[in-house]
Structure prediction request, 186 residues.
Amino acid sequence: LPICYLTGSAWKDYQETGSVCGIALPPGLVESDRLPEPIFTPATKAPAGEHDMNISIEEMGRRIGQTNAELLQDLSLMIYDRASRHVDGQDMILADTKFEFGLTAHGVMLADEALTPDSSRYWWKSSYQPGGPQISFDKQFVRDYLVDSHWNKQAPAPTLPDEVVARTQEKYLEAFRRITGHMSLR
Prediction:
Protein backbone atom coordinates (compact mmCIF):
# COMPACT_ATOMS: atom_id res chain seq x y z
CA LEU A 1 0.00 0.00 0.00
CA PRO A 2 1.77 3.18 -1.10
CA ILE A 3 0.76 6.26 0.89
CA CYS A 4 1.83 9.85 0.55
CA TYR A 5 -0.73 11.43 2.89
CA LEU A 6 -1.34 10.58 6.53
CA THR A 7 -4.92 9.29 6.64
CA GLY A 8 -7.01 6.23 7.47
CA SER A 9 -5.28 3.44 9.35
CA ALA A 10 -1.89 5.11 8.75
CA TRP A 11 -3.11 8.17 10.68
CA LYS A 12 -4.30 5.93 13.52
CA ASP A 13 -0.95 4.08 13.60
CA TYR A 14 0.96 7.36 13.59
CA GLN A 15 -1.08 8.73 16.49
CA GLU A 16 -0.33 5.62 18.54
CA THR A 17 3.31 4.98 17.62
CA GLY A 18 4.73 7.88 15.59
CA SER A 19 5.31 5.42 12.76
CA VAL A 20 3.47 3.53 10.02
CA CYS A 21 4.33 -0.13 9.33
CA GLY A 22 7.54 0.31 11.30
CA ILE A 23 8.58 3.43 9.36
CA ALA A 24 9.25 6.32 11.74
CA LEU A 25 7.69 9.59 10.60
CA PRO A 26 8.50 13.15 11.65
CA PRO A 27 6.83 14.30 14.89
CA GLY A 28 4.00 16.83 14.84
CA LEU A 29 2.20 15.67 11.70
CA VAL A 30 -1.55 16.23 11.51
CA GLU A 31 -4.29 14.20 9.84
CA SER A 32 -4.03 14.35 6.03
CA ASP A 33 -0.50 15.84 6.08
CA ARG A 34 1.58 15.14 3.00
CA LEU A 35 4.54 12.91 3.81
CA PRO A 36 8.05 13.92 2.66
CA GLU A 37 7.88 11.06 0.12
CA PRO A 38 5.56 8.15 -0.62
CA ILE A 39 6.09 5.14 1.60
CA PHE A 40 5.32 1.48 1.07
CA THR A 41 3.10 0.03 3.77
CA PRO A 42 2.52 -3.71 3.22
CA ALA A 43 -0.38 -5.59 4.73
CA THR A 44 -1.47 -9.18 4.98
CA LYS A 45 -4.52 -10.38 3.07
CA ALA A 46 -6.99 -11.49 5.72
CA PRO A 47 -9.62 -14.19 5.25
CA ALA A 48 -13.10 -12.99 4.23
CA GLY A 49 -14.75 -10.98 6.98
CA GLU A 50 -11.49 -10.13 8.73
CA HIS A 51 -9.33 -7.03 8.44
CA ASP A 52 -5.99 -6.93 6.67
CA MET A 53 -3.10 -6.34 9.08
CA ASN A 54 -0.32 -3.83 8.42
CA ILE A 55 3.16 -5.35 8.60
CA SER A 56 6.70 -4.05 8.16
CA ILE A 57 8.71 -4.55 4.96
CA GLU A 58 11.03 -6.79 7.02
CA GLU A 59 8.10 -9.02 8.01
CA MET A 60 6.95 -9.09 4.40
CA GLY A 61 10.44 -10.22 3.38
CA ARG A 62 10.35 -13.04 5.94
CA ARG A 63 7.00 -14.21 4.58
CA ILE A 64 7.60 -14.02 0.81
CA GLY A 65 11.35 -13.58 0.46
CA GLN A 66 13.37 -10.37 0.40
CA THR A 67 13.67 -10.30 -3.41
CA ASN A 68 9.88 -10.55 -3.88
CA ALA A 69 9.26 -7.97 -1.14
CA GLU A 70 11.61 -5.48 -2.80
CA LEU A 71 10.07 -6.14 -6.21
CA LEU A 72 6.55 -5.51 -4.88
CA GLN A 73 7.70 -2.36 -3.12
CA ASP A 74 9.32 -1.04 -6.31
CA LEU A 75 6.29 -1.93 -8.47
CA SER A 76 3.83 -0.42 -6.01
CA LEU A 77 5.70 2.86 -5.70
CA MET A 78 6.20 3.08 -9.48
CA ILE A 79 2.49 2.53 -10.21
CA TYR A 80 1.53 4.98 -7.45
CA ASP A 81 3.88 7.62 -8.83
CA ARG A 82 2.49 7.38 -12.38
CA ALA A 83 -1.13 7.41 -11.20
CA SER A 84 -0.50 10.27 -8.79
CA ARG A 85 1.05 12.40 -11.53
CA HIS A 86 -1.87 11.60 -13.85
CA VAL A 87 -4.61 12.68 -11.43
CA ASP A 88 -2.65 15.75 -10.33
CA GLY A 89 -3.66 17.29 -13.67
CA GLN A 90 -7.31 16.48 -12.93
CA ASP A 91 -7.51 18.57 -9.71
CA MET A 92 -7.17 15.38 -7.66
CA ILE A 93 -4.78 13.93 -5.11
CA LEU A 94 -4.12 10.21 -4.87
CA ALA A 95 -3.61 10.08 -1.10
CA ASP A 96 -3.06 6.34 -0.93
CA THR A 97 -3.88 3.17 -2.78
CA LYS A 98 -3.81 -0.58 -2.38
CA PHE A 99 -2.51 -3.17 -4.80
CA GLU A 100 -3.00 -6.91 -4.49
CA PHE A 101 -0.36 -9.08 -6.12
CA GLY A 102 -0.12 -12.80 -6.62
CA LEU A 103 2.72 -15.11 -7.54
CA THR A 104 2.19 -17.46 -10.50
CA ALA A 105 4.43 -19.73 -12.53
CA HIS A 106 4.99 -16.69 -14.77
CA GLY A 107 6.04 -14.41 -11.93
CA VAL A 108 4.37 -11.60 -10.00
CA MET A 109 0.97 -10.48 -11.25
CA LEU A 110 -1.37 -7.68 -10.26
CA ALA A 111 -4.23 -9.78 -8.90
CA ASP A 112 -7.15 -7.40 -8.43
CA GLU A 113 -8.54 -4.08 -9.59
CA ALA A 114 -6.30 -1.10 -9.09
CA LEU A 115 -6.64 2.66 -8.73
CA THR A 116 -10.44 2.67 -8.37
CA PRO A 117 -12.32 4.41 -5.54
CA ASP A 118 -12.59 0.96 -3.89
CA SER A 119 -8.83 0.58 -3.55
CA SER A 120 -7.68 4.19 -3.55
CA ARG A 121 -8.31 7.39 -1.64
CA TYR A 122 -8.80 10.34 -4.01
CA TRP A 123 -9.21 13.92 -2.76
CA TRP A 124 -9.97 17.27 -4.38
CA LYS A 125 -6.65 19.01 -4.88
CA SER A 126 -8.18 22.50 -4.83
CA SER A 127 -9.79 22.02 -1.40
CA TYR A 128 -6.97 20.04 0.24
CA GLN A 129 -6.26 21.32 3.75
CA PRO A 130 -4.21 19.28 6.25
CA GLY A 131 -5.56 18.95 9.76
CA GLY A 132 -8.62 16.76 9.26
CA PRO A 133 -10.56 14.58 6.85
CA GLN A 134 -10.70 15.62 3.19
CA ILE A 135 -13.45 15.69 0.58
CA SER A 136 -12.96 12.31 -1.05
CA PHE A 137 -14.04 10.16 -3.98
CA ASP A 138 -13.77 6.80 -2.27
CA LYS A 139 -15.82 4.44 -0.17
CA GLN A 140 -15.16 6.48 2.98
CA PHE A 141 -18.74 7.76 2.69
CA VAL A 142 -19.99 4.18 3.16
CA ARG A 143 -17.48 3.51 5.96
CA ASP A 144 -18.66 6.64 7.79
CA TYR A 145 -22.29 5.56 7.48
CA LEU A 146 -21.47 2.10 8.87
CA VAL A 147 -19.56 3.58 11.82
CA ASP A 148 -22.45 5.94 12.57
CA SER A 149 -24.89 3.01 12.37
CA HIS A 150 -22.93 1.22 15.12
CA TRP A 151 -22.67 -1.95 13.02
CA ASN A 152 -20.66 -4.57 14.92
CA LYS A 153 -18.75 -5.61 11.74
CA GLN A 154 -20.26 -9.09 11.86
CA ALA A 155 -22.20 -10.62 8.96
CA PRO A 156 -24.67 -9.79 7.72
CA ALA A 157 -23.85 -6.17 6.95
CA PRO A 158 -26.72 -3.72 7.23
CA THR A 159 -28.57 -2.73 4.07
CA LEU A 160 -27.44 0.67 2.88
CA PRO A 161 -30.16 3.33 2.52
CA ASP A 162 -30.91 4.50 -1.03
CA GLU A 163 -29.38 7.92 -0.23
CA VAL A 164 -26.03 6.37 0.77
CA VAL A 165 -26.01 4.22 -2.37
CA ALA A 166 -26.87 7.22 -4.59
CA ARG A 167 -24.21 9.47 -2.99
CA THR A 168 -21.59 6.75 -3.32
CA GLN A 169 -22.50 6.23 -6.97
CA GLU A 170 -22.19 10.00 -7.58
CA LYS A 171 -18.73 10.05 -5.99
CA TYR A 172 -17.54 7.06 -8.03
CA LEU A 173 -18.86 8.53 -11.29
CA GLU A 174 -17.16 11.86 -10.58
CA ALA A 175 -13.90 10.03 -9.87
CA PHE A 176 -14.31 8.09 -13.13
CA ARG A 177 -14.88 11.31 -15.10
CA ARG A 178 -11.88 13.05 -13.59
CA ILE A 179 -9.48 10.11 -13.78
CA THR A 180 -10.35 9.05 -17.33
CA GLY A 181 -11.44 12.37 -18.86
CA HIS A 182 -14.59 10.61 -20.17
CA MET A 183 -17.96 12.11 -19.34
CA SER A 184 -19.90 8.83 -19.48
CA LEU A 185 -19.34 5.12 -19.17
CA ARG A 186 -20.03 4.59 -22.90
